[in-house]
Amino acid sequence: MPGVARAIQPDGSIAEDGVRRVIDAVHRAATAARDLHVDRLYACATSAIRDASNATDVALRLTNETGVQPRFLTGEDEARLTYLAVRRWYGWSAGRLLVLDIGGGSMEIALGRDAQPDFAVSLPLGAGRLTRAFLPEDRPGHQVHRGVPVGAPRRHPAAPPGDGHQPGAAAHRRVLPAGRHGRARSCGGHQHQPLSEFGAVKVGTRR
User: Fold this and answer.
1) Per-residue confidence band for 47, with pLDDT thresholds at 50, 70 and 90
2) How far apart are CA 145 and CA 143, in angstroms?
3) Can you tell me the distance from the alpha carbon of 48 to that of 70, in angstroms, rounded to the nearest whole number?
4) How much is the average pLDDT of 158-185?
5) Which helix or strand (DSSP H or E) is residue 148 part of?
6) Are 121 and 75 within 8 A, CB to CB?
7) Who's near 156: CB < 8 A, 6+ residues apart?
8) How many Cβ atoms from other residues are within 10 Å of residue 78's Cβ?
9) Given CA atoms 161, 163, 164, 166 in this order, what sign does their dihedral have?
10) What are the domain boundaries of the chain?
11) What is the rounded average pLDDT of the residues 112-116?
């Protein structure tokens, strides 16, 4: 993984080392695709590149140096595709699904019962983005950070009042955090609990 979110600079651009990692990763993928005689290769850029101030320059370098022209997915398309992957994985018998995909730059939320979600949205609440915004100088462990023990419940300013348990919440029996690589494991292991206890699925890997 190129870890683009870690290379975002204060001005919103992707640093040269991050761009280099993306180019190297795409080059390796393109080479593997050719070796496997893949007919069509689609490169899709998500939030970390899409929202960067130098996104156009990064896309141009990718095309020139790898021969692969990236497509920019909108946040809603990203949410829809994640939902479709989880729906295909669990099958139609899973019923109504609420899918949360926590990435580095954004978090996608999708809700639905059929092949297409009834609701799909992308929010700028990715793990990397929030870390840069609120924890720019350290990575919290189990120590106290700014007077609040890490792991203690925190309420977002936009959250509704109450204990967080909304009426009818029990009706959504499958809330599926969908992540890629370390972010899904990190979220699941926050309290030293295995990812399986959260009912999460790492798309593309059997549980």
Assistant:
1) confident
2) 6
3) 13
4) 51
5) strand 148-149
6) yes
7) none
8) 22
9) negative
10) 4-72, 75-202
11) 92
**CATH (residue range 4-72):** 3.30.420.40
Q: Could you report the per-residue pLDDT of 95-108, keeping only the tens digit for each? A: 999 999 998 889 99
User: Where do we find the tokens 């840069």?
Assistant: 132
For residues 75 and 107, the answer to whether their CB atoms sit within 8 Å is no
pLDDT confidence of residue 173: 52
171 pLDDT more than 70: no
What pTM, to 2 d.p., does this model score?
A: 0.65
What's the pLDDT band for 126 if we cut at 50, 70, 90?
Answer: confident
Cα atoms in the 13 Å half-sphere on the side-chain side of 3? 5
88 is written with which tokens? 């295909």
Per the CB < 8 A criterion, the answer to whether 207 and 201 are in contact is: yes
Q: pLDDT value at position 130?
A: 85
Instruction: Report helix angle 55-66 to 16-35, nearest 10.
Output: 40
Burial (0-12, 13-18, 19+ Cβ within 10 Å), 41: middle
Instruction: Give 14-17 contacts, CB < 8 A, sequence gap 24+.
Output: 14/48, 14/49, 14/52, 14/54, 14/58
Greater confidence (161 vs 8) lies with 8
Note the residue count of the chain: 207
